[in-house]
Write a sequence for this structure.
């Protein structure tokens, strides 16, 4: 089992680290306060090749393996989880097409990312979160015209307000249920396809999160990804592949919080000495470091399994669940180490704590992850 990455990829990760230190981290608090990503940041990320990291080489992308992608998202997570979420959503939205799309669909979709465009994955609805079978957005097939007409709404869609292309799930059966769930490509600007309310979130605030409204949206049959009714399988396979990347962003958040706590503990003096000399603080720092490293290794193992073609659904659920729990625990402990200062916006750990919470919720709540893990073990 080899988690090492090539020298060339290591150079790329160093470039990403420098990019984060220069273009992301210094503006994280400002972007959080403004609930908006800094102007020009997406374009700079594109120049760094961060919009299409999941795209294979034969489709014009960098052809990175999962270990390299995870390492990149960890660095982004250290700087700002909101920025990391927006860029990682490009991968999430592209995976269904890479998994089940035609050659033409793959090229069309990946060309958007290769040319600096953003993408969005639209599954969640007001009445369909963990229960994907409850998707009520309808897709009616007009065989004579060779089209589908989509009607419905989506919510909590990352990149909805800035994406050029969308992967939308709708139901082709009047009775609903997972057997009718089907995936469709919907380009921005398609008549009847609108972006609705922007969410005012607790964390990952620079990431654009909006509702989508579909009113008589007509798309050609050629934009259907996979067969009718195959959407549930596509969605689950997509989420399996994306979950270790949520884990890697979580590791980035946790590592950044640990770094802040260590720096503060060395500088803060009480009772005539740095608080880093107190055994209680040392114990907390040690436990935080153990959790971060364990989470990182679990993410890396899952990515290695994916790259080797080994079934990894259980490990994906473990990596996402454990790493996001660690992000929540470590950021909370970082605030505790820093005391009242950690609770203020003068220091970044309170933001990290808010950002960490969503990692336990999106792309499958951690309660769902535990069900997945248990079912893989028991059955």
């Amino acid at each position: 089992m080899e988690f090492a990455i090539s020298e060339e990829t290591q150079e790329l990760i160093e470039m990403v680290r420098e990019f984060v230190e220069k273009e992301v981290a210094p503006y994280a608090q400002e972007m959080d306060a403004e609930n908006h990503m800094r102007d020009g940041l997406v374009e700079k990320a594109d120049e760094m090749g961060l919009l299409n990291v999941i795209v294979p080489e034969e489709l014009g992308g960098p052809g990175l393996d999962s270990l390299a992608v995870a390492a990149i998202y960890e660095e982004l997570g250290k700087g700002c989880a909101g920025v990391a979420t927006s860029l990682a959503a490009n991968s999430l939205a592209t995976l269904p097409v890479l998994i089940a799309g035609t050659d033409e669909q793959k090229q069309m979709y990946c060309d958007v990312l290769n040319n600096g465009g953003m993408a969005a994955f639209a599954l969640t609805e007001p009445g369909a979160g963990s229960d994907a079978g409850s998707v009520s957005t309808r897709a009616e097939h007009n065989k004579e015209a060779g089209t589908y007409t989509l009607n419905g709404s989506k919510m909590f869609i990352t990149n909805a307000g800035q994406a050029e292309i969308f992967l939308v799930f709708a139901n082709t059966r009047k009775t609903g249920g997972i057997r009718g769930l089907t995936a469709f490509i919907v380009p921005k600007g398609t008549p009847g396809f609108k972006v609705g309310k922007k969410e005012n979130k607790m964390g990952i605030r620079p990431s654009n999160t909006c509702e989508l409204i579909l009113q008589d949206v007509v798309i050609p049959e050629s934009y259907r990804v996979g067969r009718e009714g195959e959407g549930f399988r596509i969605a689950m396979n997509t989420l399996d592949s994306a979950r270790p990347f949520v884990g890697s962003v979580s590791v980035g958040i946790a590592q950044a919080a640990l770094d802040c706590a260590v720096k503060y503990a060395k500088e803060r003096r009480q009772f005539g000495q740095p608080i880093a000399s107190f055994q209680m603080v040392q114990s907390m720092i040690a436990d935080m470091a153990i959790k971060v490293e364990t989470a990182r290794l679990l993410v890396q193992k899952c990515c290695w399994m994916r790259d080797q073609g080994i079934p990894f659904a259980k490990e994906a659920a473990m990596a996402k669940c454990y790493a996001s729990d660690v992000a929540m625990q470590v950021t909370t402990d970082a605030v505790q180490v820093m005391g009242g200062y950690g609770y203020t916006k003068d220091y970044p750990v309170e933001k990290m704590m808010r950002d960490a919470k969503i990692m336990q919720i999106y792309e499958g709540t951690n309660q769902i992850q535990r069900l997945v893990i248990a079912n893989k073990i028991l059955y």
The beta strands are 119-122, 138-142, 147-158, 165-171, 181-187, 193-198, 209-220, 224-225, 269-270, 273-274. The longest strand covers residues 147-158. Residues 231-267 form the longest helix (37 residues).
